[in-house]
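Thread: Intraflagellar transport protein 122 homolog, structure

OP (GT): Posting the sequence first so everyone is looking at the same thing. Length is 1186 residues per the record. Can we get the structure tokens written out before standup tomorrow? I want them in the notebook alongside the other entries.
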Amino acid sequence: MRAVLAWKETIRDQCVYDLAFKPDGTQLIIAAGLRVLVYDVADGAIIQPLKGHKDIVYCVAYAKDGKRFASGSADKSIIIWTSKLEGILKYTHNDSIQCVAYNPVTHQLASCSTGDFGLWSPEQKSVNKHKVSSKITCCGWTNDGQYLALGMMNGVVSIRNKNGEEKVKIERPGGSSSPIWSIAWNPSKDEHNDILAVADWGQKLSFYQLSGKQIGKDRTLTYDPCCVSYFSKGEYIVMGGSDKQASLYTKDGVRLGTIGEQNAWVWTCRVKPDSNFVVLGCQDGTIACYQLIFSTVHGLYKDRYAYRDSMTDVIVQHLITEQKVRIKCRELVKKIAIYRNRLAIQLPEKILIYELYSDDSSDMHYRIKEKICRKFECNLLVVCSQHIILCQEKRLQCLSFTSVREKEWVMESLIRYIKVIGGPPGREGLLVGLKNGAILKIFVDNLFPITLLKLSTSVRCLDMSASRNKLAVVDEHNTLLVYDINSKELLFQEPNANSVAWNTQCEDMLCFSGNGYLNIKASNFPVHQQKMQGFMVGYNGSKIFCLHVYSMSAVEVPQSAPMYQYLEKKMFKEAYQIACLGVTDSDWRDLATEALEGLDFDTAKKAFIRIRDLRYLELINSIEERKKRGENDNELFLADVYAYQGKFHEAAKLYKRTGHESRALSMYTDLRMFEYAKEFIGATDPKNSRILMTKQADWAKSSKEPRAAAEMYLSAGEHLKAIDIIGEHGWEDMLIDIARKLDKAEREPLAKCAFYFERLKHHGYASETYSKMGDLQALVQLHVETRHWEEAFSLVEKHPQFKNHVFVPYAQWLAENDRFEEAQKAFHKAGRQTEAVKVLEQLTQNAVVENRFNDAGYYYWMLSMQCLDIARAESEDQRDEMLKKFERFQHLAELYHVYRSIQRYTDEPFSSHMPETLFNICRFLLNNLTKDIPPGISKVNTLYALAKQSRRLGAYKLARYSYEKLQELHIPSRFQESIELGSLTIRSKPFHDSEDLIEGMMCYRCSTNNPLLNNQGSVCINCRQPFIYSASSYEVLPLVQFYLEEGISDEDAVSLIDLEVPHTDQRDARWQDMDNGELQALRMDDGLDDPEEDPFTAKMSFEQGGSTFVPVKVSRSVLRSMSRRDVLIKRWPRPLKWEYFRSLLPDVSITMCPTCFKMFHSEDYELLVLQHNCCPYCRRPIDEPN
């Protein structure tokens, strides 16, 4: 650090007590005598003296916004001045004013006198004053303007808030014997706490936090300090006092040096805002302005750069990894040297030697190895593995780390440059440049320097190449000279250089900087230039280390220029070495290509590996293999290289020259350059022309113009290939043209056309093609695959052999689309009975699980009919099994059909059935339920419904029976309460059933009244005749089943019934018959009750009391007597027999469904058919023909 005097002024016979800078640094306000003086900072010229005070002016302060300043005087008054140097306001205290300070934020002014201090702000009319116990000597606001510190004569620092209330009190140990003379807050914005510097006349400098806690120890001074002042950013402190000089300190209080020596006490010193200028004011009236110049102290070795920071710290920076480490020395750092793992730092009284913790190239942890506690004067410092070298003018001294002087060299001229150039530990070599132009090499273990060269001008900078063969020198005329060390010959010189360095990784490259340019020179090629600020100090691989002012940076420089210079000279190996230092991918490609064309396969291979170009690597490998096999025709190799590079015509010429025309031909055809190929072979060679044509056709197939290719194939008669191309691209128009032009005998092309039509979803064209071929199976398959069922069915009608091919997939498709009933029918049609049954069984099971009992009944009915169908086709034993199944399924169908009503009644809130119907249904179901109750049917629900309906209809006995039965079963909780209540309340009813209900259960054969519930099932308890129920209301119908006598066929029976003899004739004939018989009988009534009157009624009589059922059998004559109206016939398909029923009440109209043969009251049936549009039982649509 140097201090240069900028200007100096003296005010005669006056003491300069205080000074203040305008915040923009243009003006200086000085308190001198009775006046306030305004100076120009630039040259020290006085601008204007300001009069207003009547006594000595002790203090001045400028507001932070630069609008006004204040002065305080021994005349007890404060004057506020504007920046235009006009006084605008004056106020007074009771004692002389000692110091003033403006709040940096609110611009409140603190003015302090011997006995009190006041706070004034522009918006206030009065000044708030606060008494103090001791004389105030100095004051200062914190950066945020919240607190004011007051320094007093009694050694106390009082910290007050904006209202003047004391918050913190700092008492110095010396008390009133060490008055506080100056205080200052650190203005740095980087500090976390407010830091107060306190200077007292106990000759101490101390630092405190706002809380009053001291930071560090007191710094002892050798003088009484009069003023302490910070630089704008708080990095340094300036202090002056009784030692008649101003000194520079670090922010921690470490003294760095003297700024300017004076002839009297320095009363005041201030730093110009945001600059390195310091102004001092002395007791003898001297005002001096100094500029501080901070020099760079630094050292560099390869990629490690050490430099001084804040005068007392050393920062070591790794230029490649950008890591930094700070070493705090807490003293002024004078010199730095760095070499390998060593770092030497010279402090005022000692030299510290550090070493790295480890040998790792990126390690940045230093520890102290040695301390040499001696004061040295030296211009340059160098460190080696075991020594330090001190250079003082002409003398070089070599000291060991234990401070023993081992050697000394004295030069004939001043030493201008010194550098360690490496070597074994303890025997390193130094390169020394002298002012007289001599360049020496000195070894640490050798007393005798070796003169390398003698120049005519002084040396500025030196460097030796990696192999110690070349020396680069920059002289004082900024000329770079490069010499061969061995021959002392000047190899070349370049102008405009201020520093030079050889590349540490490449012998032939060096770079130098100067005039704002960076210059790179390789071998003896021309220089490559690029713009760069600052000094070039090192060159490692592709990184150039550049120092600009204080900052060192590593500049990545692609080494393209020198590489291309080598390439031009076909020096591939050297170009490769340069490229390894760092070039772009495109440079690598250029190097690889040039080397390949220069047939330097080794370099080309390495370069292609760098850019990972496998194509060229394969080429090089194949050439190397061929070389191993003894091929050595370089022209042929070059032809291959040209072909790879796309220089096809050059390649063809070389192929022709080497006698490999076939290669040229295959190259052109592979590249589809058929025109060039034709040119190349000429018109003379028919064999080659033919090969060319086939290749051209093949190319057409794989080319990007498939339509042209297809046309070429068609014209060549290659139909299959043409169809493939057309089909792949989906050109239906061309495809159908081909299909129509082809002969039907050409099955393979036609089949391919049809295949592509299918793939393109052109069903019509595919169908047309298959028809043309006559391939019916494929056509059926097509219809099935495309789901065109109508066409498929029409084909099956003409060709029944394909029935299975259509109906099975159709059924599967229906099943996949959840159309199971249709699927079942389709399976049935296809003759796949097992599948048909399987589908139905699955449907039935699902319906039961899902409580769809209606559907379950319907599916069971269908299953039974299916079994009947199967029974017709099967053998005898299987037929019986199927008929048993038929019976079982018919039974189940009826049970589920009726249970649906009960389930709806118990589970749903509303019932559409009349109570009588529900009553009948429950009884029917209970009469027909065997021990094995079908899944899904609940006996509880049935009994519960029966109990409720019985009670409603007056069948109290039956209701009570139902409730008792329910008690034996497991009852769901939802019915529990209702059933318990019902079974209690039913006991209040009479224990018999309604007469009407019992009459409704009369047997129409024997006129017996049957019980409401019959444990024998749905048969008469007397004659065992089965009851015939209506399939809607489940009332007993007035029908009696009769059977035909032996020898009467169904056809005969129907024709006999259809004869229908008129009634009167019948009567007469019968009468005569009776008359002609042995017995004669005359009845007096009208004969209606006469059993002989109606032969059928006679047949109905039976023996009373028999336990076996005697069926009604009729003869031909009886059949003849029946009316067609009164007979219902269930015409079951074979192998079942027809069933015959005779209505005993002809007025009761009964309808039978022709499909399921269920009987209904005609009105019920008509209503249900209107509701459902079909039979409620078998779902036969009403419009379906019988």
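GT: Both are above now. Quick notes for whoever picks this up: The first strand starts at residue 2 and ends at 10. DSSP finds 32 helices and 61 strands in the chain.
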